[in-house]
Each structure stands twice: as C-alpha cells, then as structure tokens.
Design brief:
Blueprint lengths: L2 H5 L10 E10 L4 E3 H6 L6 H7 L4 E3 L7 H16 L8 E5 L10 H9 L5 E5 L5 H15 L5 E8 L17 E11 L11 E4 L7 E4 L4 E4 L1 H22 L9 E4 L4 H13 L7 E2 L3 H4 L6 H11 L8 E8 L3 E8 L2
Parallel strand pairs: 4-5, 4-6, 11-12, 11-13
Antiparallel strand pairs: 1-7, 2-3, 6-7, 8-14, 9-10, 13-14
Helix pairs in contact: 4-5, 7-8
Bound molecules: oxa(dethia)-CoA.
C-alpha cells in the first residue's frame, strides 16, 4: 500500500468559517505603586521624569501571595463569564507570558484546572510583549481548523518577579496583571471577528531585551528598542489592516502594546499619516497600569470597554512587540 493511500484514510477535523472574540476580562493586583513610591525606595528617579519619558503615573504590583497563574485564573474566568459560556465549553487554554518562575510546569494547565476547564488542551506561548497577539492568531487558526471550538487566550505577567529594583531603566516601566479573551466560531465568513495575523521577528536585535538568570534581572537597551518600535511597528500594524482587507480609515480603536506612551503616540501618528481617522481612539492604559508585557493589550481593551470608550462591533487594531525581538498584530471586531 502506498503512503498516499494510507494518508488518504485520515479524517480531518471540520473547522469554522471564521473565528471571533466572544468574551473579554482582566485582572490587576490591588497594590498601587506610584512614581514617588519608587523614588522613595531609593531609586534615583522622579515622578516628572517618568511621566514625561514613559507616560506612567502609577502601576499595579502583585505581592508574594499572588502568582502569575492566580492573575491568569482571575482574568480567564471573567472572560469566560463574559462570553456566556461555561468553563467546560473551553477546549484549549493558551497563556501568553514570559515571566513564569520556571519553564515547567506551564501556566496554562494550572489555569485550565482552576477555572474548571478540566482536561482542556493547555500550553503557554512566549512571544514576550507580542505574546498575546501570537496566541490570538494561533487560537483563531485552531477554531478555523476545527482543532478546538472555544479557546481561552490569556496574557498574564508577573514582571515584578524579574525586576532589579535598583535598575531605573527597567523597574519604573514594568508591572503586573492579566487580560483574557475567549475565541470561538463565527457562523459565516461575513461575521469574521479576527483578521489574519501579521507576525515576524528581528532576531538580530536579540541582545536588546532579556532576563539575566544570574542576577534574576530584566535588562533592556531602551533607546535601541525605542528606535526600532517607533520605526518598525507602524508598518506591521498597517500590514495587519491590509491583510484584513480594510483601510486605516476603517479602524475605530488602536490598542498597541503599552510599552511607553511616547511609542504609542508615535505609532498612532504614523497610522494617521497613513489614512487613519483623526478621531481614532488610542489606548493609553499604560498611564495607570504600567507596561504589563503580554497582558497589556487585552487589559487595555477591557479597561476601555469598562469606561465606555469602545462598543461591541467596533473595529480594533492590535499590535504587540518585544523581546526576541518579536512582533505581531491583527484586526479584531470588539466583543
Ligand atoms: O515592552 C517591551 C519593549 N520595551 C520598550 O518598548 C521600551 C523602549 N524604550 C523606552 O521606553 C525608553 O528608552 C526608556 C523609557 C527605557 C528610557 O527612556 P529614554 O527617553 O530612552 O531615556 P534614556 O535612556 O535616553 O535616558 C535619558 C536620560 C539619561 O540621563 P543623561 O545621560 O541624559 O544625563 C538617563 O540616565 O535620563 C536618565 N534616566 C533617568 N532619569 C530619571 C534614565 N532612566 C531614568 C529614570 N529616572 N528612571
């Protein structure tokens, strides 16, 4: 029997015509840390510099009693409830993160168990600050291929576990939290709610962000990453718009990774120069949440929705970027 005949006997899963976001949720630890709090800890910085150069006024930091998985569970459970589904409907859990205490066990299996999605497929995605958009792209493909009907996609980070609180170039930026979405099938291609992902990497810049395992500290060459982000990320976002068959003027809300408010504004300016509307709403969640890496995009959208700044059915553009360097973006219809 030939190989061709053998493989012809395999049955393929039946997928959905398209995927969409069905639910959204987020979680932040209670402890608020202001810029003055950091300066008072002996870091040579001040409120004015941080507001001016990064745009952060305060951030949330988890205490030792709250783990990355705890935050993923909180955000994930809210997203499932928001979708109108029950945890047992979730077939796969993906947790995008880059700050688990060790490579194993992963965050997703524990999260699945604790939210009641028992026996769900469970894996982590590490695309650093681009991780959520990578995971959302994978989830959309899983639903379309029929590998899973409902996928819980979470971005969760406990950045504070990996910060050197004496390094003023990093400890003032990063923070903790989680954001989540439920991805499920759309009845027809016309109802598609997640556009094709535009992703890639710039591995030649690998040295610019990382974690030093010897010192347990996150390091970054801030200026090099800033230059890269302000020149290379707008084209990625515009490519995602093109892949979705839209034009920049179709975008209602721009939700980029909340790395630095100056980067967010620089990329938004380039989108407007490329045809995005003057009234394009731009997420600025970094101001009160800090940079939460893979959690920042779903958390920002959830906060905008709670504030009435985004409505169901509006068109949002996501783009994430970070260590690797990695980047990814897509257009979505807001849940
Ligand atoms: O999320 C993953 C991707 N990461 C990013 O996208 C981060 C990208 N980079 C950045 O956001 C910015 O480069 C930083 C926020 C990290 C730094 O801002 P910057 O405007 O690039 O500052 P700089 O490193 O050029 O430093 C400017 C000055 C320096 O002083 P001198 O040499 O001009 O006297 C620094 O020593 O500011 C000083 N400085 C600070 N002063 C007070 C640097 N950090 C601080 C601080 N407080 N925390």
């Amino acid at each position: 029997m030939s190989q061709a005949t053998r493989s012809a006997r395999l049955r393929l899963s039946a997928g959905a015509p398209a995927a969409r976001i069905l639910g959204l949720g987020s979680f932040q630890p209670e402890q608020v840390v202001t810029n003055d709090d950091i300066a008072q800890r002996g870091v040579d910085t001040n409120d004015e510099w941080i507001r001016d150069r990064v745009g952060i006024i305060e951030r949330r930091i988890a205490g030792p009693e709250t783990s990355l998985v705890d935050m993923a569970v909180e955000a994930g459970a809210k997203a499932v409830a928001d979708s109108g589904l029950t945890p047992s409907d979730v077939g796969t859990v993906i947790v995008a993160n880059c700050t688990m205490p060790s490579g194993i066990p992963n965050a997703a299996a524990q999260t699945a168990d604790r939210i009641g999605a028992r026996a769900a497929g469970a894996f982590d995605v590490n695309g650093a600050c681009a991780g959520f958009c990578y995971a959302l792209g994978v989830a959309s493909d899983l639903v379309r291929a029929g590998s899973s009907r409902h996928v819980l996609v979470i971005g969760a980070e406990k950045m504070s576990d990996w910060l050197d609180w004496q390094d003023r170039s990093t400890c003032i930026i990063f923070a903790d939290g989680a954001g989540a979405t439920v991805v499920g099938p759309a009845a027809s291609a016309e109802e598609a709610g997640i556009g094709p992902v535009a992703w890639g990497s710039a591995g030649e810049l690998v040295h610019t962000i990382g974690i030093n395992l010897a010192t347990h500290g996150l390091y970054q060459e801030g200026q090099a990453v800033f230059r890269w982000a302000t020149t290379q990320i707008a084209p990625v976002a515009l490519h995602a718009v093109e892949l979705a068959g839209l034009t920049p003027a179709d975008i209602d809300v721009f939700v980029p990774h909340q790395a630095n408010l100056r980067i967010v504004e620089a990329v938004a300016k380039r989108l407007r120069a490329a045809g995005a509307r003057a009234d394009l709403r731009v997420a600025d969640d970094i101001v009160y949440s800090g940079n939460t890496s893979s959690a920042s995009i779903p958390m920002a959208l959830d906060h905008m929705r709670a504030a009435g700044q985004v409505q169901r059915g509006e068109i949002a553009l996501f783009v994430g970027f970070g260590a690797g360097l990695t980047y990814a973006g897509q257009v979505v219809v807001c849940p």
